Amino acid sequence: MSKQRSGNFFEDFHLGQRFAHATPRTLGLADQSLYIALTGSRACLHSADTTAQALGFARRPIEDLLVFNTAFGKTVPDISLNAVANLGYAELRFLEPVFDGDTLGVESEVIGLKENANRRSGVVYVRSSARNQHGREVLGWVRWVMVHKRDAAAACGEPVLPSLAAHVAPDALALQVFGEQVASAPRVTGCSDQYEDYAVGERIDHPAAMTLNDSDHSLATRLYQNTAKAHFDAATMARSPMQRRLVYGGHVMSICKALAYDGFENLLSILAIHGGRHVAPTFAGDTLRCATQVVECLDFEGAPVGALRLRMVGAKNVEATEQIRFTAPSEPPDPHTVLDLDLTVALPKKRIHRQHP
Amino acid sequence: MSKQRSGNFFEDFHLGQRFAHATPRTLGLADQSLYIALTGSRACLHSADTTAQALGFARRPIEDLLVFNTAFGKTVPDISLNAVANLGYAELRFLEPVFDGDTLGVESEVIGLKENANRRSGVVYVRSSARNQHGREVLGWVRWVMVHKRDAAAACGEPVLPSLAAHVAPDALALQVFGEQVASAPRVTGCSDQYEDYAVGERIDHPAAMTLNDSDHSLATRLYQNTAKAHFDAATMARSPMQRRLVYGGHVMSICKALAYDGFENLLSILAIHGGRHVAPTFAGDTLRCATQVVECLDFEGAPVGALRLRMVGAKNVEATEQIRFTAPSEPPDPHTVLDLDLTVALPKKRIHRQHP
Amino acid sequence: MSKQRSGNFFEDFHLGQRFAHATPRTLGLADQSLYIALTGSRACLHSADTTAQALGFARRPIEDLLVFNTAFGKTVPDISLNAVANLGYAELRFLEPVFDGDTLGVESEVIGLKENANRRSGVVYVRSSARNQHGREVLGWVRWVMVHKRDAAAACGEPVLPSLAAHVAPDALALQVFGEQVASAPRVTGCSDQYEDYAVGERIDHPAAMTLNDSDHSLATRLYQNTAKAHFDAATMARSPMQRRLVYGGHVMSICKALAYDGFENLLSILAIHGGRHVAPTFAGDTLRCATQVVECLDFEGAPVGALRLRMVGAKNVEATEQIRFTAPSEPPDPHTVLDLDLTVALPKKRIHRQHP
């Protein structure tokens, strides 16, 4: 009859295991306002109903990373309560907008397992999916996470590594969310830079900086009902190598996206996250800056939006954004870098090229 | 014509005195989202409309302690602005759910008065009641509080102590709020522990911990429009024996209830608080943990819910929840304990026993 | 194709230049709840729908300074991103109530320019206007701000100083917002002090105090989507004479108004701000207090409200509100003073005098 909940350890997972994560969460305008207060987001589509309507939506959708962080938070009690570290993301896709009053339910399936050589932990791969109250998938993603074993001696099966796409395929991006009315975005933002104005290789140094506070990041992480101890329990963290509470990586992503508003004013939303690493921990008192490089431009024929694949790098405690370094995969990461994200975003096009009949 | 508001002192109260506290407050989904961000609550009934509907409610009700803390806050300017300490609670009952858009108005009546021997303060007993916009009582409670005298020489009447119930009678619990649909809670929470799975004497050590920040607790206390100076005025507190801002006791209660989710996943709501003591002050930087003991199981024949009477103990700065001590009434309180609460909660039953006709 | 946004410098402004500031913002009950949590506001009209209805409104309007701070925030990226200091306000008028779901769009026009003698900066005067989704002006104001030059050698035109009113004319106050039902305010607040109970020269020492936290003020400032670096970038501020993040002056105004509830319980809303100075910077850890002096009583014949012109002085780190000094214009400001605001507020009248026919 024990009710001492200790979460799942590595040996508790098995391939094909499915979780219906507790407990569904209705998102609404209250969460969107809190998200603005927590991150400083100015994303046009999510700031005003009039803007959302001008862009072809019935009303303001809930912002992409608020949806992601909420859905991610749901998976923590089952998947990563005993995690050593969150190692990576793949195949993340935003599939449908979420509106005020929509309820997210999140499920996960174990798609890979690999015990570490030291037998004290292992890597769990899960594919997760958030559905709204109509059963429609609004967000899907894969993550892998290193999880402690309860008992190093416990027997674990042979390693199974999932086959993961290096990036979300262009034809899997949910472009159909956007109609031709998105062309009016520059009238709202006052900025003329649209899809065609970005070039592969271009780097944008976002000018603003944001210093994090313990209360901010713990408010955000509680809003997402994420229960990972590292973000909340300063006493236990004081006895860890970190020495203090760790800022939830999803909050760092949200801050970086908000900083990137200046330079991507007409960005409509994130379509996909192909991969991402929390390169180093972030703590209260750290000041974040963000720079972005355009990696690929995808001009979907006939579509009102184009997609930009971006490398977004967040760094802490650099004096100027220009000091952020984009290291090559062969290089060691820059010691200031905290986030290295590979994502694709939607921007309105100036001209919609159509195939000749 | 003086408008230097100084609040009521002990000699300003008289038996039977009634207060219609300023100013009514409409609660809504915004407050519920903020409450989640402030406390980390994951209570299933309050997290999603779909869940609330599955459990037989039209939509998410506002969480019990958010209602209590809001109603309590309303009484502060009239009752406890000049309080030395809040001494106790009794006969607290949640009577009706509060929904998005409902407005609470709060009234109190002085039901007891006892000057202290030193004549510098006295204890005021008040019975308070929160009603919604339809005039229906949603919450009632008694509290007693030690209040400074303005003038030690002021004459005060004979002591009158109210007759208070040692606990809320079982037949006074508002079980009718819950219908048979609550039986579906385990399908949402993924946890099978229901009323029948808890046994008298069982102790549950809730695994999580929460470090408090000054901004968190002052945001919460302002949300409740509670004006007690001890929570906000660090300069005055620096000159007091406390030396710093005191965390509002109702925030400590909310944090403990949120921590208790793990082990009481199917808890529907608090029905009553029979008594409670803020054993020691809590400050920003303290890390809270919570353990609960089952004191009594009340199986209401024919009802879809059972009631568990619990002793919930919150402690600060213990290394593990297992270190929390449940002291006997004859013992001095453990120096780590901050909250010792005697409450009754509702859980769905596995089987509804009905009387034979 | 550069997208390194650096904001406007003094030489980028020209007389008559117009800005449609990005991006419109829908305000709602979520923002109002957050505002209560951030400031401790208890203003009766904004706390409950039942109160708003009793006072003749369809529902709770959004609080005046929440509207102002949101509208002000919109102007920052275009006007004051490179500001040295915000120097003053004039002619601020609240013209129409803003309700849940209303969207504010903000425009500004440059009405004055004056380069400083040192040629490194200049003063920009802008008239700004916030309109709702129906195109109706809800708020208008003038501010002037000292802005850096990008290039000290850049040629600037002749100085042009706008002609500004010393105060908003009484007949320009939007009294028509209030109907006779406002007379019921004392029934809600429990306080009988109405327009007629205030006298010119009367001083009110508001008893409460509020200590600011870094998280509070940065949450508030982000909620307003205000991007001024001084409030967010602790690393850059550490290298400035301020040494730390500066609290946004609009947050100080909001805190002072909330503190002034005790003594102005029946205050309905701010009608106008004639002028105001942020006399000294405020930082996290400072404790604010507020005192108010009645400067003028305007009894509009036949109107259900009277207007009080007030001098509201906010001070930091004084032991008691009574220590706040109201210095004369010829005196140097008291070193504790942070805010000196000249505003007019509406209060219900006890008796509506009507002209004899």
Structure commentary:
3 copies of one chain form a homotrimer. Chain A is of the alpha+beta class and 357 residues long. Chain A has a single domain (12-348), classed as Hotdog Thioesterase (Thiol Ester Dehydrase, Chain A), CATH 3.10.129. Chain A is built from 8 helices and 12 strands. Chain A has helices spanning 29-39, 44-47, 49-54, 64-79, 185-189, 214-223, 234-238, 249-259, and strands at residues 18-20, 25-26, 83-94, 103-115, 121-131, 137-148, 203-205, 210-211, 269-278, 287-298, 305-316, 337-348. In chain A, strands 1, 2, 3, 4, 5, 6, 7, 8, 9, 10, 11 and 12 form a 12-stranded antiparallel beta sheet that branches. In chain A, strand 5 (121-131) and strand 6 form a beta hairpin. Chain A is globular and about 65 Å long. The first copy, chain A, starts with 17 loop residues before the first strand and ends in a 9-residue tail after the last strand. The mean pLDDT of chain A is 96.
| Portion in strands of chain A | 25-35%
Q: In whole angstroms, how far apart are the ends of chain A?
A: 70 Å
Total of DSSP H or I helical runs spanning 4+ residues of chain A: 8
The oligomerization state is homotrimer
Q: Most extensive interface: pair and counts?
A: A-B, 43 and 49 residues
The helix-and-strand class of chain A reads alpha+beta
Number of domains of chain A: 1
Query: What series of H and E elements makes up the topology of chain A?
Result: EEHHHHEEEEHEEHHHEEEE
By DSSP, the count of extended strands of chain A is 12
Radius of gyration of chain A, CA atoms, in whole angstroms? 20 Å
